What does this fold into?
Amino acid sequence: MIKKIEVVAAAILSQSGQQLFIAKRPDKAHQGGLWEFPGGKKEQNETAVQALTRELHEEVGIVINEPTPLIMLEHDYGDKLIQLDVYCVKTFSGEPHGAEGQETQWIELADIDQYSFPDANLAIIDALKKTFL
It folds into this structure.
């Protein structure tokens, strides 16, 4: 049976919604070297928002306020099925940075197609474009 993994991720946006904070996956990781939306695996007995709050604090050093749902999707990688719950985060305290040593940067949302993301993220990018561009 294929393993199902529940994951949360955030599109961390500037107040205008025109800039987006992204992180680069470590070269040795699954889908290594590609850009991604910060987040991680949901732990047992955690809600999606609790997991997102924890992951964003650990990974990028921010405390989030009022995340809003953007899209929920599933992606089959063959060896595992990822259920991805994605939120928009526009209000937070702290300055996002690579708290785990990962490369990060703010980009213009309009320039997102210049960055390589895992296939599972393409629907997220489309949802962001439809919502903010």
